[in-house]
Amino acid sequence: MLPSLASGDQAGRESSAETHHQRGWESLSGTLPRFHNRARRDSLNPRPFDMTMRSTAAEASPSISHVVPGSPYPAGASVLFDRDGVVNFQRTGRYVHSWPDFEFLPRALDAFRALAHAGVSTYVATNQGGVGRGHLTAGALADVHDRMAEAIRDAGGRLDAIAHCPHAPDDGCRCRKPRPGMLFGLASRFGIDLSASFFIGDNVTDLEAGVAAGCRTILVGTGEGVRSAGRLGINEPFTGFTGLEPPPIGGLVGVAGDILDAVHAAIARRAAG
Ligand SMILES: [Mg+2]
Ligand SMILES: [Zn+2]
Questions:
Q1: Which of the residues in the chain have pLDDT under 50?
Q2: Which ligand is nearest to the CA of 177?
Q3: Same domain, 165 and 48
Q4: What is the 127 CA–ligand 1 centroid distance (Å)?
Q5: Bridge-partner residues for 194, per DSSP?
């Protein structure tokens, strides 16, 4: 949150997208216009943000880890993913507690390889409410992500960083999807151009977060994807990539069979501008 306020354009979008979620800001609604103005002015003349504006610990920024140092690629237009049900199998009612629970979906490593080959910066943004609810320790999650990142690199793939929200659903944080805090956090740290980027997910909440962040989104048929499509009234088959026109929700550009189909579509559309 703090870094994003230093970049005026991003801060403006975050403010407008999240205002209704932020209890701390609601109580300051009378001063909101002035706050917006100050955020813009700060982008020209940076100064420390007033910490008292942050009302609860749960509104803290998402946790960002596994940053690849010295990224050889510019950020800009990037591809961001949900994790469970997109990158790895999601088992109903079960968290990934440790590495033996983690299993890459078919073609997931191919997708990260395709992104490396195309020179596209790549991020994961995952809700891990099991941490906040005490089902999963932060250390165990870090170990899973260490090994996931290592496996992607070993396969010749590209993963620039992982953002996770450790908060429980009723913590009221700003990073748990469908809120866009993780995407804004990654964008402000790495200079991602969200409006030129894709967010790929299997849940309606992923699509909502992506849209709120200004990304184009793609729904995959793995994980909860088929059920999500049903909720949105989407009847297209989940094979290859099918563009949706008009989109059933703003920003949802299409449905893809899986992560690799989605990545191919994102890379092609990126090349097409
Ligand atoms: Mg998911
Ligand atoms: Zn959170």
A1: 1-59, 72, 273
A2: 2
A3: no
A4: 8
A5: none
Residue range 18-49, pLDDT digits in tens: 333 332 222 222 323 333 333 333 333 333 33
Q: What are phi and psi of 245, to 5 degrees?
A: -140, 115
- Give the pLDDT confidence score for residue 114 in this predicted structure: 97
Active site residue 82: yes
In the chain, the number of structural domains is: 2
Choice among 50, 84, 154, 193 that is catalytic: 84
Same structural domain for residues 120 and 230? Answer: yes
Q: Is 84 a catalytic residue?
A: yes
Which of 9, 42, 50, 82 does the annotation list as catalytic? 82
Contact 184, 4 (CB under 8 A): yes
pLDDT at 150: 96
CA of 81 to the centre of ligand 1 (A): 9
Q: Are residues 130 and 242 in the same domain?
A: yes
Tell me what pLDDT residue 222 has.
97
Q: Does 91 share its domain with 189?
A: yes
